[in-house]
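Board notes (copied after class):
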Amino acid sequence: LQRHHPAPPPGEPPPPPAAAAADPPLSVDIVIIGAGLSGLTAAAYLKKEGIESFLVVDEGGQGAVGGTWRDHAFPNAGTDTEVPTYYPSFLPTPETSSQYGKRDEIMSYFKRVAKEQIGEHKFLWGVSVASAKFDGSWWALSDASGTTTLRCRFLMPAIYSISCKWPHLPAIPNRDLFAGDVQHSMHLGPQVERFRGQHVAIIGCGASTIQIAPAIAPVAASVTVLRRTMPYIIEQASAPMPKGRLAWAFWRLAYELRNDLYTMFDGSRRLEWLLRQWVRLCFFRKREAHTLPPASQPVQCTRRCYDYCGFIEGIRRGTISLVDASVNAVSSFSASGLVLRDGSEVRADSVIFATGYKTIGGDDTTDLHYEVLGEKVPVSDRVPNLLMPIAGCPIYCTPPRRTEDSACSILPQRATPQRDGRIVRR
């Protein structure tokens, strides 16, 4: 994988830099783009299967693993699902303080996987891939200038699940009138002292808000959450995870079985109401009505949210307020906050947009473009939380949670890509 530069003949000085030949592109069997959870999972799986001809490239600085977790450091940042279902089962059991992983624990685990399970020599840092062109046999990966820096037979784009490059920012009028601070949640650091004594408004009520709001509430004068769709927020107490691999596997199976049952019932028009009634019976019997979604709302209409940071408790105590923006929507900014449809005002010194990200797929939400046999190919936006697939090409998708069952099992030494993208087993 090293670039070789021939030495000048004896007695002749080396050529000046301007006359030096351009570096030839590195050639490997597999290139993985992105060093987040999906990319690390794919790389560790290849190592596990004895595949060595691969590289992981990432535009971050030296050793900057983590992807989404590297780029998001808001207060209380952590997983919104239990860690046994989040990390691949073939990797070492992580050390976590509870069944939910915090950002610093996740980042430490990623660094451990990169060093021990993959090898630091398998990473190229500071590499930005702007285009990927497939000629029927090889992918040519180029930077923004059009210079081809890498060639590979198999491409794994471990990107786009949640990209900090394309946050969704609602177009609320009169932004220039507001005298306070406005930020998307992805730009918040872990410190909350900056909000001391402030009135804080958070727009959106997803997993990020449920972690951010209870972190800010103890120091802020007030925290107001403006939401449209109220998710199913299930209160959970943090509990230590077992250390043994067998016990860890048991809890992974239990959590996966629960998730599969949720999905099965939620996906059936005839059975969905059973899941809804069961969740309400088990978790919402003593909950305040204004913290509940409508009775007719399916459980997975939005992403389920596990509240282990104290969001609902903050509402009970009055340190967090809820505004139903589906009834009384935000109409504009004012000098001192947000104006609602009915003319009332939510006072705010800081406004946080916890409004998610744009859907990946169009030219305005990707800086990596694909060509296959000279034709541009759009990126699919239909499979969230997986490596984004392109139909008809040898791009293998590795789900972050179930790598063992993925197409990654079709290994390069057992298969040959054809010009039409089919895979022929050897």
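Comment from the instructor: The mean pLDDT is 80. The longest strand covers residues 148-157.
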